[in-house]
Amino acid sequence: MWQFLYGDWSVANILVLMVAAILIGVNKTGVPGLGMIPVLLLADTFEPRESTGLQLLMLGMADIMAVAYYRRQGNWRIVLRLLPWALAGIGLGVLALQFFPDRAMKPVLAWTILIMVAFSYVAKYIKKMDKLPSHWGFSAFFGMFAGLTTHIANAAGPVMAIYLLSMKLDKKTYIGCAAWYFLILNWIKIPIFVCEGRITAKSMMADLSMIPFLIIGAALGILLLNRLPQKKFEQIVQGLAALGALKLLFW
How many CA atoms lie within 13 A of 219 on its CB side? Predict the structure, then answer.
């Protein structure tokens, strides 16, 4: 059974996968931005293309769990405003990886996210910025950039964190919007990753065995979200978005 599911992977490989699954579950249902930690764990343990494929399948399954719990909390006006631009961003990501290695793209993505984090801190003190999030160009930029980062490195979490925080959503509406948005994007990406060779039969079997750990993480995330005050939630999301960008910059 072990070889059927994991082939020649070591016990350490499987333990990393389990920890990543729990963290992905927590990220999807309670602590947005935490998802950058499993990105790092998987990338340090598996070959780069394999690590992104392993992560995407777990993200897709965790998205289903998040939507199942928060399906009534999302704001479809926000989600639908972003989706066309996000799909265009995924298309750009497919093209970008044909000409540039993902490592060459990451510093650019990281600096852009850091600038956006700084913007999110400054914007709340400038009254003229209040109307900016409702402008179509604002949604176009964030939607396209999220699509690009999610395809290249499964790293759209920090981008969406800044965008959704700018909407001044309460924490459960925030999670609901993110759940629907990433459910759609990640399941669109899965066949693309299969065609690119980043998802294989082996990675599918390994990820399916992680479902119990994804469920544990999702339950922990719901528990944490219910206990977090709104202001603390926003501070944690902003902080993790900045750390996620730094991870892209230096990893």
Answer: 6
* Dihedral sign for Cα atoms in the order 226, 228, 231, 235: negative
Residues 6+ apart with CB under 8 A from 124: none
Q: Please name the residues in contact with 189: beta carbons below 8 A apart, sequence gap of 6 or more.
A: 56, 90, 150, 151
Asked if pLDDT for residue 15 goes beyond 90, the answer is yes
Q: CA-based angle 158:71:176, to the nearest 5? A: 25
Q: What is the pLDDT of residue 249?
A: 64
Q: In terms of pTM, does the model score above 0.70? A: yes
Average pLDDT over residues 207-223: 95
